Amino acid sequence: MEALVLRDSITRSMSDEVFLKFCLENSGLRIERNSSLEIIITSPVSTLSGLHSSEIFGQLYQWNSKNRTGVVFDSSTGFTLPDRSVFSPDASWVSIGKWNSIPDDDKNKFAPLCPEFVIEVSQNPIILMT
User: Fold this and answer.
1) Largest CA distance in the chain
2) Is 74 exposed, middle or buried (0-12, 13-18, 19+ CB in 10 A)?
3) What per-residue confidence (pLDDT) applies to 124?
4) 122 near 90, Cβ under 8 Å?
5) How many domains does the chain fold into?
6) Structure confidence at residue 123 (pLDDT)
7) What 3-state DSSP class applies to 48?
8) Using an 8 Å Cβ cutoff, are 32 and 87 in contact?
9) Judging by DSSP bridges, how do beta strands 4-6 and 117-119 pair with one another?
10) Beta partners for 117?
């Protein structure tokens, strides 16, 4: 599935606050931003990819529920990386210490942090069985 990439002077000049507002005003779209500050709009994933993604998120959530050393995020969560890119991994985990170090105001935005653990499900997943 192809992505629509917006690359122009307007997208490159968007502040983080304006980008967040753009995403909120277009909440029905999956929107990310790369390190070149290009906006990437992608279509929904296939049903099979969604199934694999939900299974992986469920396993990560259950693992975290047992050890309680961090917080788990789903695929709709955006994180702002040091290069100002904003990505939404299919599932991610952040340690309690790292999460608690983020100011509360930033937690209601695309938090400026890189999760310690991320999972991306491809359109053609490889299934490993043990």
Assistant:
1) 50
2) middle
3) 61
4) no
5) 1
6) 67
7) helix
8) yes
9) unpaired
10) 93
